[in-house]
Amino acid sequence: MEHAFVKHDIALIVPVLGDMAALAELLGQVDGWHDRPAEIVVVSGRPDPRLVGLCREHGCRLIDAQANRGAQLDRGARTARASVFWFLHADVRPPDDGLEAIDAAIEDGAEGGCFRFAFQGSRTWYKRLLERLVALRIALGGIPYGDQGIFVRRDAYLECGGFPQQPLFEEVRLVRRLRRRGRFRPLAARVRVSTRRWERDGWWSRSWRNRWLASCNMLGVSPEKLAGAYHGGAAAGSDHVRGAPDSHGERDEPGARPNA
Question: CA torsion, points 174, 87, 135, 250, in degrees to nearest 10?
């Protein structure tokens, strides 16, 4: 596939666990871009016949993997053939010029990076405040999580060991290793994150829980135990860890992140 504006081949890698509507919306957005990714790899945490037709319609590669965020992301990366990986959650809405932004950063010497965190929907004071707090945390050296559209060159990804096979905070090791190499670049362009979990749990309750989980992770609590707490306090290994239905009748997908 020829790229009119993007010099580097960029693979879009999307982990899913039944989030058909969000994935369909994301793929529809990508179809409208001036320049498309070199490839789109959808990694399902369980076999889902509905995904076959959707991925065929949008020209995606569909592969199955263990229902585990780190395992799905790593499987997608090691399956993709492009020289740059862009990991994007199905319920995140990227900027329409996201490929160009990544391409420019890579061309300028970056090995990886992330986008600026923002919420979807109407603009409110508490959304703006939380967005600014996330931006401040990143500027002070905090870890950008997976809902910020992390991207990385293939060679750097492999040299850093990729994503570990863990259900939560799988990006922490990769981002830390990329930062040590000195070429991890946060971009000014925004990705817009679904507000569903904040609306379900309460804006401040969800945000404080996310910070508590991040602190526990820094103190060495296992990702499996933290995944149980993140998905409503279920025990590790339960359906909540794998993605149980929430109050909307949907599932907390592998892309759900403890940000803000």
Answer: -120
